[in-house]
Amino acid sequence: MIIPPYLKLGDTIAIAAPARSISFEQLQAAKNWVENKGYNIYIHPALYAVENQMGGSDSHRAKVFNELLGMDNIQAIWCARGGYGSLRMVDRIDINLLIQHPKWIMGFSDITIIHNHILRNCAQAVLHSTMPIFMDQKVGEDYNSVGVAIDSMLTVITGQPYQFELSGHEIINEKDFEGTIVGGNLSVLASIVDSVSEMPFDNTILFIEDLDEYYYHIDRIMLMLKRSGRLNGLKALLVGSFTNMHDHTIPFGQDVKGIIRQHCSDYGYPIIFDIDAGHHLKNMAIPFGTHVSFQDGILTFATA
Questions:
Q1: Closest Cα partner for 278 from 238, 241, 230?
Q2: Are residues 195 and 231 located together in one domain of the fold?
Q3: What is the pLDDT of residues 116-126, one digit of tens each?
């Protein structure tokens, strides 16, 4: 797996909008934060395009993304937000540009599609991370959590040592493990099954998270992955935040943890719940495609 070059102070992070549109105002908090950390932000002149919910047409979003991929003076591309739209433009991404100009691609949620497409088609590590839209929080939100999240992003892309302390977490089948970590948003992963964007799970450590779904929908996806054989070859399963889950008047009868326990416990590999990553403000960075090891309650990422 290729690790993109690590950033140095003064390097440039570009903002992209491959899914929902973003406004000038919504980017200012993230821009100021990153610049205060000693990095430059590049805003493409066509970034603020809008077509219905998305950041311009499918071809426009892909064109801007490809232009950013081809720029040698940009060391990372930070996706502004998720929503929906990456699936509509991902096949237009010129992977050869990334091969020629390796750089970190950062974001999560809908960006799961782009991450897995890159992992599958050019074997370059990518970064699940917070996004600029989460910096644009109003009064009453926890800015400290956002700060921890963006600091973890910078820790990874600058090549510093990076670990998670997980000794207090609920763990099924606890034992040491190591391997390559992959994954992302569960519903989005389901949308790319059997496509050229699907990254195989065999012999990997799988991370999953999701937002705003019904329990039966999570159950259906887990069963689909299980029945297709995609869950039986894992080295471990890391479960992030499943935020704002829903139930019907007649309860489904299981929450997300119960669903995962039922469908995955018998495989025998470790399952670790409540990983501090996903759709909340303290969304810790996870470098997909890198080597990770778990020992003595510590999850260590081999990015340094």
A1: 241
A2: yes
A3: 999 999 999 99
